[in-house]
Amino acid sequence: MSWIKELLTHELPPTGQTTSYADYDDGYYETGWPGATRFRDNGDGTIQDFATGLIWVKQPELIIPNPGWQVHPTNQIQVAEGDWIADHEYLNADLVKYVANGKFYVCIAGHGSVLGLNDPITAEGVCWIETVWTASAADLTTPATMAWAAALVNCHALDYAGNTDWRLPNILELASIINHAYTGAKYHYNAYFPNGKVDFPYWTGTTYEKNTIWAMYTAFGTATSTPHDKVNTDHVRPVRGGFING
Question: Are residues 103 and 207 in the same domain?
Answer without folding.
Answer: no
